[in-house]
Amino acid sequence: MNPDTVIHLGTQALYMVLWLSLPMLAVALIVGVAISLFQAVTQIQEMTLTFVPKIIAVFGSMVIVAPWLTRTMVTFTRQLIESIPGLLR
Fold first, then answer.
1. How many CB atoms lie within 10 A of CB 37?
2. Alpha-carbon span 25 to 4, nearest angstrom
3. Do the Cβ atoms of 87 and 1 come closer than 8 Å?
4. Which residue, 70, 32, 26, is CA-closest to 49?
5. Nearest 5°: phi and psi at 83?
6. DSSP assignment letter at 83
7. Which residue, 5, 38, 86, 89, is the most exposed by fewest CB within 10 angstroms?
8. Per-residue DSSP letters for 9-72?
9. Are residues 40 and 10 in contact, defined by beta-carbon separation less than 8 angstroms?
């Protein structure tokens, strides 16, 4: 296995992590902006107000996208395991 292959596999793994975390990050961003707007409009400056809705929203999005997350991770892992014989040459 040469260094280019290791870099390629590492790059694929990082892209996979980013791709899988994107739905939860997007939901957290949208909920955070909505709560910030609410706080600005009502002038409520409570710092802990943002945490509970974000946690609930991220957990809900994880439940919704769990089948896609699992399918994507299993496909990536299967492709990686199947490519092991070719990588050892």
1. 10
2. 30
3. yes
4. 32
5. -90, -5
6. T
7. 89
8. HHHHHHHHHHHHHHHHHHHHHHHHHHHHHHHHHHT---GGGGHHHHHHHHHHHHHHHHHHHHHH
9. no
Task: Parse the chain into domains and list their residue ranges.
Answer: 3-87
How far apart, in whole angstroms, are the C-alpha atoms of residue 28 and residue 26?
A: 5
Q: pLDDT tens digit string along 11-67? A: 999 999 999 999 999 999 999 999 999 988 988 888 788 889 999 999 999 999 999
> What integer pLDDT is reported at residue 44 of this predicted model?
83
pTM of this structure = 0.80
